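[job 0417] fold request received: HTH-type transcriptional regulatory protein TyrR
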Amino acid sequence: MKEKSEGMPYNKLLQELSYYKQTYEELKLIMDTTFDQITVTDGKGVLLKVSKSCQETFGISESEMIGKDVYELSKSGIFNPSITIEVLKKKKELSLIQETASGKRLLVTGIPMINEKGKLVRVVNISKDITESEMLKKQLEETEHLLDWYRDEIRRNQIKNKDYIVGNSTSMKKIIELVEHIGNIETTIILLGETGVGKSFIAKTIHQMSKRREQPFVQINCGAIPENLIESELFGYEEGAFTGAVKKGKKGLLEVAGEGTIFLDEIGELPMQLQVKLLHVLQEKQAYKIGSTEPFDIKARIISATNKDLKKLVREGKFREDLYYRLNIVPIHIPPLRERAEDIPLFINYFLSKCNQKYSLSKQISSNAYKVLSSYNWPGNIRELENIVERLVVTSNKNTIEENDIFDIFTHIPKYVGEVNEFIPLKIATEEFEKQILLKAIEKYKTTRKVADILKIDQSTVVKKLKKIKKESLNDYINHRF
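[job 0417] inference complete; emitting structure tokens
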């Protein structure tokens, strides 16, 4: 048989050509029918083969790509960045996100082919179109963001419409706006205000406004627990840490709070030795149980509150200055009830409704009674107001609570207050005004000597007038009751 090629029979050559042709057609079929985009370049980055799907993906035809160099195509924006260029540089398999001229986003993997001499001869790129999945991911993120916003709004409204009221005064509206803003900001907050203004409620509201809302809210009154017990309550203790310790040890409230919120009420009462430990907690986010040498992590958010002047305590050496500045990052001052008198009727109505429901009654309060209650300065704030409303509901034997019912149980409230809607004898008005001044003065300054100094009268006069007020109050009580 005549040979067509040196060293190889003609028939064998035909067979090999047929095999290579079949292999090429199979590979071409695979490349053209796969959902992924496949390109092959030589060792210099010139495109040798591309799958049919590349035309739609890259925005140019197959014939426009074959024979072109990837450097040129990348520079013209057909695709960017070029995975082939990176593989040629680093000579290893790489993956990256690529954008094309047609607006597609591809996840591209470039695979180098290296011959037996260690020379890079081909780069095969397999690209997966992730445009739709990226869009779906973005839409999902936007939807989640929108859902979070709706959840937050629903939660805010639930808190505002909860079985509790905050008030409609300008000062309280500003506080709630601030609480909404800082709820999810992981910063240290201290609540300032007199006893009974609602500091614990604001602390719970901050917790509910935060992402920690599903976690525990743990409250501890630093002034209500004996000094020798508060350390173990806060930090816990190990087995055998001291006589009387629980056998298995005990978790402290800082640990019990987990990833929730711990509210340290009356922080000004915290003993000095524990102030050092609390400072460590705030700085290092770690604490030690009593009897342990291994720290545990503090993951809870800490909110503190006080009715004391911490600056004054610092000056007196009763409160650590460094701890004061650590706690005082975001101070929120809650004004006393007397400074937001417009909120008093709201609280009266709320407490009246609550008591009526509690005792299965339907009591009402007259307009004059509202004026009397609104005139008082409420040193005990909301807590005191709630107490008085409940006493009025329970003790009044009529459906409508009148001002005299208030005077019966609460002699500190002045009888003649507010606007002058009717005329009374000037002597009575003067006596009533004098009574108000004396009662407020003795309430504030505690001693008759101090009251005498302030009012510029003799101490004996103060004592005499206070005895008269006490006697009149007793007579009023007897006359109304018997």
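[job 0417] notes: The chain has three domains: 34-129, 187-335, 339-481. The chain has 20 helices and 17 strands.
[job 0417] exit 0
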